[in-house]
Amino acid sequence: MKVKVLNRDPKDYLKTRAGDLPKLPRNVDPALHPFAAQREYTAALNAVKLERVFAKPFVGSLDGHRDGVFSMVTHSKRLPVVISGACDGEIKVWNVTSKECSCSVQAHTGFVRGMGINQAGDLLLSVGDDQIVRMWNVDEMLQNQTVDPTTTISSKTLLTGIDYQWGSKSDTFVTCGSSVGIWNINRNEPLRNFTWGVDTITSVVFNKVETYMLASTAQDRNIVLYDCRENNPLRKVILSQKTNQIAFNPMEAFNFTAACDDNNLYSFDMRKLSSPLNVHMGHAMAVLCVGYSPTGREFVSGSYDKTIRIFETNKGRSKEIYHTKRMQRVFCTHYSADSKFIMTGSDETNIRLWKSLAWGKLGPISSRERSAFDYNKKLIQRYGNHPQVKRIKRHRNVPKMIKSISNEHNNIRNAKRRKEENRRKHSKPGSVPHVAERAKHVVKEDS
């Protein structure tokens, strides 16, 4: 005689803990769920709406400077420490967690043009309009309200920027002005000077991966690449407008992004400077600063139009735009070392702290919340090209001034495009070629 019994495992239908949700049996056969795609689309639409509802990126501000914040650097070892330099020559050390100033010193006469910190995080370099390079002990600045510089170096020419070479045992830094100078912290004269052109060099930056590589920007619209082990510059590219700042990708050693006066940013591969990898558009006025995320997947830019934008490295359109009523021209932007926050310094004396993910939650996240976030993210990726989801995901409210200037720029671009199409229609075939957007902005490449 054959006896059939039902065998059920209690783990399949009983809750493990009292706070758990009840377990419901579910048959995943597609034939039993004919409206699964429709339900997923509705869930994706709700998920992208919730992102907009919870988008509150502003975290706080650090107030204390008496003049505009012109330069900024983050501590290489301590996550909450930020050092800022103002247009009146004052340098302040901040603790972002407590929003308090640890140290304040009158470092220079005039602007603090640039600052650099070594990889160990114990030596800070600053340069100002007074043609003086000063070195500071960061550990003393974190413990005392006022300190004196450990070393002072006088330059014979005006200096407009400075950066420290990345490396645990490095003692090399670079300055720019009338030329690019390679210095040793133990000497009062530069080891060598690089010149290519006759105009003032406005900024210089070291590559943190290929640590001997550096790049500079100048008033005559060029971007020059150097190897500090060589005696001559390596390569130069001339753009249609002046470049204000450069940032190297920390994960892709050959790539860098340039912020330019023509409202755009250009990502280049230093092995092929004849054409940019991508043109990042969206700002209404000149782009003044750019900073990469430690992940290398996105960067933040600050502009003369009083806004900051977050771009993905492989996208030409910004994914976020941040602005406030009080924020003026943005001079410097930096990511935190964990890539979760953005620090910006602007002309109205404030340092602002923003979330890099506008709708991200601050504080601990439970496993169920993490699963829900991941599921919503996948839903938005799957249905991101549907018109309603795409419209809600892309839409951002911007100030009226930005909107009107952007509309004017769009009208100008459309008029140029129509004129070119008309010329092409009424000309000999092939006489008016199609020129890609990436090829329009590079004037010349030299090596």
- As a percent range, the share of helical residues equals 10-25%
Radius of gyration: 26 Å
Q: Termini separation (Å)?
A: 92 Å
Largest sheet: 5 strands, antiparallel
Mean pLDDT: 92
Poorly predicted segments: none
Strand-helix topology:
Blueprint: H1 36-53, E1 58-63, E2 69-74, E3 81-86, E4 90-95, E5 100-106, E6 112-117, E7 123-128, E8 132-137, H2 138-143, E9 151-154, E10 159-164, E11 172-177, E12 180-184, E13 192-194, E14 201-206, E15 213-218, E16 222-227, E17 235-239, E18 243-248, E19 255-260, E20 265-269, E21 278-280, E22 287-292, E23 298-303, E24 308-312, E25 320-322, E26 330-335, E27 341-346, E28 350-355, H3 367-382, H4 387-394, H5 400-425, E29 442-446
Antiparallel strand pairs: 1-28, 2-3, 3-4, 4-5, 6-7, 7-8, 8-9, 10-11, 11-12, 12-13, 14-15, 15-16, 16-17, 17-29, 18-19, 19-20, 20-21, 22-23, 23-24, 24-25, 26-27, 27-28
Helix pairs in contact: 1-3, 1-4
Please describe the structure with a list of short key phrases separated by commas or semicolons:
447 residues; alpha+beta; 5-stranded antiparallel β-sheet; 4-stranded antiparallel β-sheet; 5 helices
What does this structure look like?
Helix content is 17%, strand content 36%. Helix 1 packs across helix 3 and helix 1 packs parallel to helix 4. The N and C termini lie far apart (92 Å). It is globular. Strand 18 and strand 19 form a beta hairpin. The longest helix has 26 residues. The strands form 7 sheets. The protein has a 5-stranded antiparallel β-sheet, with no helix packed on it. Strands 1-28-27-26 form a 4-stranded antiparallel β-sheet, with no helix packed on it. It has a 4-stranded antiparallel β-sheet with strand order 2-3-4-5. It has 447 residues and is α+β, with helices and mostly antiparallel strands. The chain contains 5 helices and 29 strands. The mean pLDDT is 92.
